[in-house]
Amino acid sequence: MSGLEIERKFLVHKRGDEYKRDAYSSSRIKQGYICSGHGRTVRVRIRDTKGYLTIKGPSLNGGMTRYEFEKEITLDEAEHLMRLCEPGIIDKTRYLVKSGSHTFEVDEFYGDNEGLVMAEVELGSENEPYEKPDFIADEVTGDRRFYNSYLRQMPFAVWKKDLPEEFR
After folding, report:
1. Which of 96, 97, 107, 102 is nearest to 31 (CA)?
2. What global pTM score does this model have?
C-alpha cells in the first residue's frame, strides 16, 4: 500500500473497556524505528505473525495527512530488521472497532507507555464525516507526543502527569 494516509487521533476514556467489548478483532503489535527524524520515519512492525516495513513522510495539515508506503515482509525479515532499530520498541494491542462506515483502531500500550490508550480513524478525505464511538475523548491529531515515534523516545510514563487523571 502506498499513498496519502489521512487519519485523526483521539484519547480514549479510561472509565471502562467498552472498546474491548465492541472489538471485532485484536492483535499484538511490536514496532521499532530504523530511523526517525525531520517528520520522516522508517518503521518495522511485527503484527501477530506478519512483518511490515513502512516509510512515512512528514505530516501535513495539522498532522492529519502524510505520505505512507507499506510493504508486507516475512516475519524472519522483520525480526532481523528489528535488531537495527533505534532504542525503544513500541509494544501494544490493537483493537478494531466498527463505528458507522468506519473502523477505529484502538491501541492499548505496554511497557513505558503503559496506561496510554488511543484511537485512530482513517478517512478518505480530510473533511469526511464519521461517527465517534462513546469511548472516544479528546482529539490529539497533530500533537507529536502521541506519535509512536515520539513515544519511543519520550515514553508516556515520563509525561503522563501533564494529562487529566481521566487519561492516565
Report:
1. 107
2. 0.93
Q: Tell me, yes or no, whether 135 lies in a domain.
A: yes
Report pLDDT digits (tens) over 36-87.
Answer: 988 899 999 999 999 999 999 998 888 899 999 999 999 999 999 999 999 9
Of 69, 33, 29, 25, the residue nearest 49 (C-alpha): 29
Which structural domain, as residue segments, surrounds residue 57? Answer: 2-163
CATH assignment of the domain containing 159: 2.40.320.10
Residue 36 lies in a domain: yes
Secondary structure (H, E, C), 24-44 = CEEEEEEEEEEEEECCEEEEE
Q: Could you tell me if residue 40 is inside a domain? A: yes
Please tell me the predicted confidence (pLDDT) of residue 11. 95
* From 19, 33, 52, 95, active-site residue: 33
Active-site annotation holds for 33: yes
In a domain? residue 168: no
Q: Is 80 exceeded by the pLDDT of residue 15?
A: no
Instruction: Tell me which residue of 97, 116, 93, 2 sits closest to 46, measured CA to CA.
Output: 93
Residues 6+ apart with CB under 8 A from 121: 7, 8, 10, 99, 102, 103, 104, 105, 130
Given a contact cutoff of 8 angstroms between Cβ atoms, the answer to whether 39 and 122 are in contact is no
